[in-house]
């Protein structure tokens, strides 16, 4: 039996193929048609399986990256906070943090719930008190402004677009903010006032406790996450400190690093500088449950869609079995002409490889 067979296409020049590949190619072109129906179905099955697998995995990966981008648009890379409460003498610590290798910038922040009122509509969003100049170096917050501008000079604020819609407020309107941090003290004073005949002094004291902050909206932001856009008001740091009677203290220091995905290395450098109970928490740690859920979902989808590829593989197997049954007589002829069992085996293996190759290429 010759080692190579000749296959003539539309040209007179012969194309040399190995014997097994030549026979496999001829079996995929029965009756001189380009591909049989069963071969087309097998190739389509592989194309479908590969395409769906790649598309879904790509979508899930893109979704995770977009979510990371939105989180990093509002949150810092690392948060330095006191487990016991406030950072009192924070300025020296800020200087140490800023000098740490891998740190681009750092800024003080405070955060707490308030009652926001506008035209008899009341909600309880978070206020985020920031130093405007330092904050712009820590987060990319300014580029998410969709109306107005990022201006926190004086008694002003920037609020989420969804929160503005809920309050029916817009740029230029004035919000009234009440801090509930001393609500227990207010209730105790009111109880004393009820039990006292001359309670004017106590009621004045309650009024002073509930003295609101008036802030003018200078801009609306839209990060793309409803949790942020519907529940946050960004104010100057001094307003947040006054609302919660913090004095000069802050709740945390926000830190920006050179690479948000290498924050663990920077965290390791920061930890020796932090006196207990001060700790450094990365944005990955802070959103661990969210990203773990996405990874589990992506892995699950991968295994589920892998079954589509397995079904396509069964389609190729079905093609090979059908071809083998149909070509029993031809197999006998090839053996009679001296073909080895190994060569005949490679005929059908080559057929499966050709179908898989074209299906994979088209699926990609």
Termini Cα gap: 39 Å
Secondary-structure-based class equals alpha+beta
Biggest beta-sheet profile: 12 strands, mixed
Radius of gyration: 35 Å
Total E-strand runs: 14
**How confident overall, as mean pLDDT?**
80
| Subunit arrangement of the protein | single chain
Description:
- By secondary structure, this protein is an alpha+beta fold.
- The chain folds into 2 domains: 4-64 and 293-363, no CATH class; 77-286, no CATH class.
- It has 14 helices and 14 strands.
- It has helices at residues 19-27, 37-74, 90-98, 132-138, 161-167, 183-195, 200-209, 226-229, 237-243, 263-270, 283-286, 288-326, 328-336, 341-363; strands at 4-7, 15-18, 78-82, 103-113, 115-118, 121-123, 126-130, 145-148, 156-160, 174-178, 213-221, 232-236, 252-257, 278-282.
- The strands form 2 sheets. Strands 3, 4, 5, 6, 7, 8, 9, 10, 11, 12, 13 and 14 form a 12-stranded mixed β-sheet that branches.
- β5 and β6 (121-123) form a beta hairpin.
- The protein starts with a strand and ends with a helix.
Q: What are the salient characteristics of this protein?
A:
alpha+beta, disordered N terminus, 21% strand, 51% helix, 364 residues, two-stranded antiparallel ribbon, 12-stranded mixed sheet
Q: How is this structure best summarized?
A:
The chain is an alpha+beta fold. The chain has helices spanning 19-27, 37-74, 90-98, 132-138, 161-167, 183-195, 200-209, 226-229, 237-243, 263-270, 283-286, 288-326, 328-336, 341-363; strands at 4-7, 15-18, 78-82, 103-113, 115-118, 121-123, 126-130, 145-148, 156-160, 174-178, 213-221, 232-236, 252-257, 278-282.
